[in-house]
Amino acid sequence: MLRLIANALLLSVIFILPSCGGSQPQPPPPVPKKSFAYTANYASGDISVFEVDAKTGMLASVPSGTTSTAPGPVFVTVDPQGKLLFVANTAANQLSVYKISAGTGSLTPVGGSPFATGNGPNSVTTDPQGKFVYVTNALSNDISAFAIDPATPTLVKVADSPFATGNNPVYALVDSSSMFMYTTNNNSNDIWQFTIEPGTGKLTPANGSPFPAGSIPAGIVIHPLHQFAYAANDGSNDISAYTVDSTTGNLTPMAGGRTQAGFGPVTLRLLPSGKFLYVANGTSNNISAYSVDTATGALAEIAGSPFAAGTGPFSIALDPDAKFLYTANIFSNDISVFTIDSTSGKLTPLATTPAGQQPYSVVVTPLI
Question: Is the pTM of this model over 0.70?
Fold first, then answer.
């Protein structure tokens, strides 16, 4: 009997002991993710860094302030994961690459940066997987291609790079499949298409390329459904619309001609929903907005468009939730911030944020 009582007491102690030490340590709460915005400031030779308020869309300068870069920064973009920032420095014929701090947005050059490009680099893009980066070189009429080494991180030149393209290439875009790349060429008034070799990133001109555009084509976008493409024509003040062949990636101009824009349209952005298209008109200092017919690709300007921006809006960016739109204004040295009405596509001015001198380009990271 005594042994049974002793065993019962021992079991009660065993079951009680875990609760005697107090509450167990709790894991720390997850750190909220943030988004950051960057502008490439040509005249001041630096990069402005801002934190994006996810609720209000407002921009706040980060404590680290601006970051110096190679001379003549004109274009800035980030990899799809928001880990790396790429800056095309047209006066130095170089591509600067920085690691982005997820907590602060501050920038640290990667090993080997800056990297030599062709002459007059003026835009840079990555593929959707973040494996390759491509730079258009306006003066040498070619494309510099690099593989991204994620372990280092650094860039490795793709074999046979640079690759010839049209006359005065100013913008490049890789489609969502990472199979095709397109460049708009200012002086030859056309769009070149390339196939991308998986694994190596090598470019080969596609059959049927180049495709006609308007006068002095600049930015280009592809619809999220991958059925349509649009290019802004700086010289003819309009937008070229194309259907996209799902197999070859070839572009076919849509019937009905081009769509009128403002003066000097240079950059385009589509909402992720594909419902609305926005065009920065660098000469008329405004943003044209269009609804997109997702069945035909036809554009219809929405009520209230165009919407006034700063002086010389040359670049457009969206926040990660596509609730806010930002334009970099090169002559007023600032960023215009708008709210986006998800139903009508209308833009409402929210704020103006100072940037560096002549901010040619703005980009916003995903949440990191």
Answer: yes
